[in-house]
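Researcher: Let's do a round of design. I'm pasting the structure tokens now; please hold your answer until I've finished.
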């Protein structure tokens, strides 16, 4: 019987004017972007937490402390590569991932496929194993007021040994 492990990660960042908006490693044209110690890629941060959770590791903050100057402004894709090295060392492989991005503006519909393709490339997975959904929060809370962006990611890992 397969040894399957599930993991869940979430993240949220404040949005501010004139900062870059990077989602899943893809730069999105936007008047607002993420306030963060790294590049503020909520989707990759949530993905890393989901991957660490699924293989019984600690979280992104323990592995890559925001207080450590080496991570200031770092591309979250570099953190993802380090996370993947840990997972492979533990002899896990990814079965599939599913993601929800919560953002009011700009609309992500035109960018969802590029985000899927970029995740597939960096994870070494077929695109059919990557789900990316974009939601608004109907103008209700901080995300709905365009003050923040959120992401939720769920992953399924298989232990190979
Ligand atoms: Mg974060």
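Researcher: That's everything. Go ahead.
Model: Designed sequence:
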């Amino acid at each position: 019987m397969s040894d399957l492990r599930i993991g869940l990660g979430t993240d949220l960042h404040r949005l501010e004017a004139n900062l870059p908006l990077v989602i899943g490693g893809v730069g999105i044209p936007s008047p607002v972007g993420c306030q963060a110690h790294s590049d503020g890629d909520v989707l990759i941060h949530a993905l890393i937490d989901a991957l660490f959770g699924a293989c019984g590791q600690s979280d992104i903050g323990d592995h890559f402390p925001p207080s450590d100057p080496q991570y200031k402004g770092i591309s979250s894709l570099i953190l993802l590569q380090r996370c993947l090295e840990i997972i492979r060392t533990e002899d896990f492989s990814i079965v599939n991932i599913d993601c929800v991005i919560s953002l009011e503006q700009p609309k992500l519909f035109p960018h969802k496929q590029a985000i899927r393709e970029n995740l597939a490339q960096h994870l070494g997975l077929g695109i059919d194993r990557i789900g990316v959904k974009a939601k608004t929060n109907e103008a209700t809370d901080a995300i709905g007021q365009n003050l923040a962006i959120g992401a939720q990611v769920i992953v399924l890992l298989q232990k190979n040994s």
